[in-house]
Design goal:
Structural class: alpha+beta
Largest sheet: 3 strands, antiparallel
Number of strands: 3
Distance between the termini: 65 Å
Order of helices and strands: HEEHE
Strand content: 25-35%
Helix content: 10-25%
Length: 88
């Protein structure tokens, strides 16, 4: 969804206000959302969002060379615990 929006001539290179967003848990990019408003200037977009009392929207910049980041952190199994000497 987000990659399609970013490739669109209507949104590419602009700031987009999104509502009802469902994010991908791996890439943290929107999977589903309602496009509320769009502008080239983030300050103008945010001003309109405040004036419309839409303060819970996600504001994201859309660029056409979008490539989702996938960060995978290797998980290592815990090793044996070191022996602890207990004094008597």
């Amino acid at each position: 969804m987000w990659s399609e929006i970013c490739k669109s001539d209507q949104y590419s290179g602009r700031w987009i206000a999104l509502d009802n967003v469902r994010f991908d848990p791996v890439t943290y990019q929107p999977l589903e959302a309602d496009v509320v408003d769009v502008d080239d200037d983030i300050a103008d977009l945010c001003s309109r969002m405040r004036a419309a009392d839409r303060t819970s929207c996600a504001i994201m910049h859309c660029h056409e060379d979008f490539a989702p980041e996938t960060r995978r952190v290797p998980v290592q199994a815990p090793g044996p615990r070191p022996a602890v000497a207990v004094g008597r």
